[in-house]
Write a structure and sequence with these properties.
By secondary structure, this protein is α/β, with parallel strands linked by helices. It contains 14 helices and nine strands. The chain has two domains: 139 residues, Rossmann fold, CATH 3.40.50.1370; 178 residues, 3-Layer(aba) Sandwich (Rossmann fold), CATH 3.40.50. The structure holds phosphoric acid mono(formamide)ester and norvaline (NVA).
Length: 333
């Protein structure tokens, strides 16, 4: 995988994604002092320079890239407020950054921007979230489910409840198609994923045995699953749609009843985070004042329950992002 960008899981084979998950687990064991294969010993990214461009807010993704880089001996630059797209074209900026850095992380809006950076920089570019995709998130989500269930990805069943056409759900669907998982979306029909995304994954589903389904019926979606997943109802950049989203999604909150409807007493709850499960944020307080809601996509009870693995999942962002950088910057594979 050396020299390749990580823009979407669509660009990777089943075997490559499984290898990234294995590497993530090995790097996690290394970090925890539990030993690792000899090829992973030492500082794997020593001498590398990495730039992190963020056009949207972030806690987990930024910190994961930074800690992962530092752990393996790389240096990072955190870049906001650059000239890119304002006084300098994306093409020219990408060429400049490619002269200085070994890898570029980009988080932003249009997928076209990250593709343009990847086309012109000449170094690996990693997608830290765009409007349509969030591929590093999926590696952490699947690794966490594997760790807690002991299952191989092809035996995992996920139900995603909420905004069925957002970046996280799209990315999970692509990951599921590649890995042979079952992926069910429960969403109001206005927020169903695009037919073209589903159609484009049919070949992968056929090859891997994945089953993707979309319904408005939560009970149907969650029956027998290993993981119930949700994300915010309003993604970054869509704040002007808050009224409409709350109207569409208020009946799609993940509650204890939704977990019970799975029929799986061990069902896991996952969320990419950040989450509106209480009133302890400025935005949640504003929404409460306007709409009278004190919890949005998930109840506080579920979030804090024994089913919830959200903080393991957040930690796994770091181990999986480290694997992506090591795989694309070194000769490890
Ligand atoms: N899950 C995730 O991407 O979190 P951040 O927005 O904090 O990076
Ligand atoms: N769908 C969310 C994910 C945040 C990690 C957003 O794009 O804001």
């Amino acid at each position: 995988m050396k020299g390749r960008s990580f823009l979407t899981l669509k660009d990777f084979t089943t075997e490559e994604i499984l290898a990234l998950l294995q590497l993530s687990g090995d790097l996690k064991a290394k970090k925890k002092g539990q030993g690792c294969p000899s090829k992973l010993q030492g500082k794997l990214l020593a001498g590398k320079n990495i730039v992190l461009i963020f056009d949207k807010s972030s806690t987990r993704t930024r910190c994961s890239f930074e800690v992962a880089a530092f752990d393996e001996g790389a240096q990072v630059t955190f870049l906001t407020n650059s000239q890119m797209g304002k006084k300098e074209s994306i093409e020219d900026t990408a060429k400049v950054l490619g002269r200085m850095y070994d890898g570029i992380q980009y988080r932003g809006f249009s997928p076209e921007v990250i593709r343009e950076i990847a086309r012109h920089s000449g170094v690996p570019v990693w997608n830290g979230l765009t409007d349509d995709d969030h591929p590093t998130q999926v590696l952490a989500d699947v690794l966490t489910a594997m760790e807690h269930t002991g299952k191989e990805p092809k035996d995992l069943k996920f139900a995603y409840i909420g905004d069925g056409r957002n970046n996280v759900s799209n990315a999970l669907m692509i990951g599921a198609a590649k890995l042979g998982m079952e992926y069910r979306i429960a969403s109001p029909k206005e927020l169903f994923p695009s037919n073209s995304l589903i159609a484009g994954l049919q070949e992968d589903c056929k090859a891997s045995g994945a089953i993707i389904s979309v319904t408005s019926d939560i009970a149907e979606a969650v029956k027998g699953v290993d993981v119930i997943y949700t994300d915010v109802w309003v993604s970054m950049g869509e704040e002007d749609q808050t009224d409409a989203r709350i109207a569409l999604l208020k009946d799609y909150q993940v509650s204890m009843d939704v977990l019970k409807a799975s029929g799986n007493p061990e069902v896991l709850f996952e969320h990419c985070l950040p989450s509106f499960h209480d009133l302890n944020t400025a935005v949640a307080q504003e929404i409460h004042d306007k709409y009278g809601l004190s919890e949005l996509e998930v109840t506080d009870e579920v979030f804090r329950s024994k089913h919830s693995v959200v903080f393991d999942e957040a930690e796994n962002r770091m181990h999986t992002i480290k694997a992506v950088m090591v795989a694309t910057l070194t000769d490890i594979f």
